[in-house]
Amino acid sequence: MEPSDGESGRGARVAVLIGAAIVLVSLCSCVAAVAAVVTWGDDVYRRLVHDRGETVALGQAGRDGAFEFTVSRIDCGIAQIGDSFVNQTAIGQYCLAELTVRNVGKRPAIFEDALQRAYSPDGARYAADSAAGILANSEHQLFQNQINPGNRVTGVVVYDIPQDRHIAELELHESEDSAGLRVTL
Questions:
Q1: CA atoms of 108 and 87, how far apart (whole Å)
Q2: Measured between alpha carbons, how far is 12 from 121 in angstroms, rounded to an integer?
Q3: How many CB atoms lie within 10 A of CB 129?
Q4: Which of 36, 63, 120, 165 could form a disulfide with 124 if both were Cys (CB 3.0 to 4.6 A apart)?
Q5: 3-state class of 43 per DSSP?
Q6: Pick from 88, 153, 167: which is nearest to 125 by CA?
Q7: φ, ψ for residue 142 (rounded to 5)?
Q8: Which of 147, 150, 156, 151 shows the shortest CA–CA distance to 174?
Q9: What is the model's pLDDT at position 18?
Q10: Are 97 and 71 in contact (CB under 8 A)?
């Protein structure tokens, strides 16, 4: 027995609805995957990087790429940076990480404060405050400085963190793609 025209039309509509449902589910899955990467991607990336990167304590030298970093101290609780004419006030408190960077590679490399991260004990990540860093390094040549092989520069990386927090770890990078050096405080 052959299907009537009404039955074949209904079958085509069902097939189209099933196909549309499959496309809709696929699209929602892609959106969910992108949202997951955006939400948790940095944490996953950080765990992968930490599995490969070196860890040192405050005052110890450690290497990432062509740079050897030594963090000599961290001072927090600073409300303002600069002088009486040009200054900047912290939103929370400034924490200053004093460090030495030596190029142990074979070609010039540029130090960028934007690549240097700080973490609180609960894992909150803080970016460097470049404007405050320029004021804090008025007598140093650390930022955006091309460091030739064998040369060493000293300066301060500045972080503006909440008043009730402190820095437990720094993650220092020679480049955006490097594994990173962890400095535990």
A1: 32
A2: 60
A3: 22
A4: 120
A5: helix
A6: 167
A7: -95, -45
A8: 147
A9: 80
A10: yes
DSSP string over 57-70: ETT-EEEETTEEEE
Q: What is the pTM of this model?
A: 0.71
Instruction: Give me the tens of pLDDT residue by residue for the chain, a chain 185 residues long.
Output: 555 555 666 767 776 778 667 777 667 666 655 555 556 665 555 545 445 589 999 999 999 999 999 999 999 999 999 998 999 999 999 999 999 999 999 999 999 999 999 999 999 999 999 999 999 988 776 666 789 999 999 999 999 999 999 999 999 999 999 999 999 99
Helix, coil or strand: residue 77: strand
State both tokens at 62: 């450690």
Output phi, psi for 23, to 5 deg. Answer: -65, -45
CB 132 within 8 A of CB 79: no
56-184: in CATH 2.60.200.40: no
What are the contacts of 81-85 at 24+ separation with CB within 8 A? Answer: 81/132, 81/135, 81/136, 81/158, 82/135
Of 84, 76, 69, 60, the residue nearest 142 (C-alpha) = 69
The residue with tokens 């301060």 is 156
- Residue 145 to residue 174: CA distance in whole angstroms: 12
Helix (H) or strand (E) holding 110: strand 109-111
